[in-house]
């Protein structure tokens, strides 16, 4: 099959009609119909059935659409690069990161870098930790900036810096909070659990279990940002990564490092067979410097 066949199939599937697909692809309706028929001939099975005047995707079409989506995304990225090259803006870097780093820290790092490097385009997206490996494998991103390396994919890493988990709470709820804050001190507070938010939160939960610290959560979230918002709303204290805490800090809220310390590494991951470009390495140096300066 040629790319045009896949484009027509994808357009008909997503729009629900040949006429809308033809408009989307800027071709005539007969041309779109012929391309779709030719695609079905090449495949050896129908992609759509006509039911009461409507096109209904077959089971085979449902099986193929995920692959067609991926191809369309790659074509879109190819066209973006070509457009940037035409405009003399040939340097494009795609970065996926955790929501914790994508809410405040990395957007500021990207903004500063782009200001200093006219012509560079950086595409920044967020994903949960468990989705990072798939983004690399599917070539949806050039780099992943994360805390722990994605599993199940042959990846290499570039260390960027160290951060730590911290307690976030309202000052009125804990006016005499020590610095650093012993984990045991949280036992007397209403608590928003983040134990399912990723590897770092699970390490904190394991440390609490080892010390026999039992908390009674009044809420929980798999998102550090959501847990921080729950604290702002008055639900108690939580433990989140320091960049989420710094981004959430408002008058009346306080942050404390934990005792014992709960550090973690921030690193960039890439496929072993696809080393970072010069642009990527330069941007990672920029991120490393910001982390070294405290973010």
CATH fold name of the largest domain: D-Maltodextrin-Binding Protein, domain 2
Cα radius of gyration in angstroms: 24 Å
How many domains is the backbone divided into? 3
For the secondary structure, the number of strands is 12
Overall form: elongated
Please bin the fraction of helical residues.
Answer: 40-55%
Task: Provide the β-strand percentage band.
Answer: 15-25%
The number of distinct helices, counting runs of at least 4 residues, comes to: 11
Relevant CATH superfamily of the largest domain: Periplasmic binding protein-like II
In N-to-C order, the SSE pattern is HHHEEHEHHEHEEEEHEHEHEEH
CATH architecture of the largest domain: 3-Layer(aba) Sandwich
Structural class: alpha/beta
Mean pLDDT: 89
- List the uncertain runs: none
Please tell me about this protein's structure:
The structure is a single chain. By secondary structure, the chain is α/β, with parallel strands linked by helices. It has three domains: 3-85, Arc Repressor Mutant, subunit A, CATH 1.10.10.10; 88-161 and 265-292, D-Maltodextrin-Binding Protein, domain 2 (3-Layer(aba) Sandwich); 164-263, D-Maltodextrin-Binding Protein, domain 2 (3-Layer(aba) Sandwich). The chain contains eleven helices and twelve strands. The chain has helices at residues 3-15, 18-25, 29-43, 59-86, 99-102, 105-116, 132-137, 199-210, 224-232, 242-248, 278-292, and strands at 48-51, 54-57, 91-97, 120-126, 143-146, 155-170, 181-182, 191-193, 217-220, 237-241, 253-259, 263-271. It is elongated, with a radius of gyration of 24 Å. The mean pLDDT is 89.
């Amino acid at each position: 099959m040629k790319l045009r066949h896949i484009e027509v199939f994808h357009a008909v599937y997503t729009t629900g009609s040949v006429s809308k697909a033809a408009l989307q692809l800027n071709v005539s309706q007969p041309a779109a119909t012929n391309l779709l028929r030719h695609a079905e001939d090449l495949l050896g099975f129908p992609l759509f059935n006509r039911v009461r005047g409507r096109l209904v995707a077959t089971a085979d079409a449902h099986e193929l659409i995920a692959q067609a989506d991926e191809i369309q995304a790659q074509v879109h990225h190819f066209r973006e690069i070509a457009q940037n090259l035409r405009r003399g803006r040939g340097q494009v870097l795609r970065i996926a990161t955790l929501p914790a780093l994508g809410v405040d820290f990395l957007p500021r790092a990207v903004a500063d870098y782009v200001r200093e490097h006219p012509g560079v385009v950086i595409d920044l997206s967020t994903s949960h930790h468990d989705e990072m490996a798939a983004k690399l494998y599917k070539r949806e991103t050039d780099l992943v900036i994360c805390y722990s390396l994605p599993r199940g994919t042959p990846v290499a890493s570039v260390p960027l810096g160290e951060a730590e988990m911290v307690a976030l709470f309202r000052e009125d709820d804990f006016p005499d909070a020590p610095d650093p804050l012993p984990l045991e001190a949280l036992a007397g507070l209403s608590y928003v659990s983040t134990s399912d938010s990723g590897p770092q939160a699970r390490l904190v939960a394991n440390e609490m279990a080892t010390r026999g610290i039992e908390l009674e959560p009044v809420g929980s979230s798999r998102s550090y940002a959501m847990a921080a918002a729950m604290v702002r709303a008055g639900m108690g204290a939580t433990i989140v990564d320091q960049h989420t805490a710094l981004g959430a800090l408002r008058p009346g809220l306080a942050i404390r490092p934990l005792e014992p310390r709960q550090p973690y590494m921030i690193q960039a991951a890439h496929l072993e067979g696809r080393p970072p470009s010069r642009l990527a390495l330069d941007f990672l140096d920029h991120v490393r410097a910001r982390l070294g300066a405290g973010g």
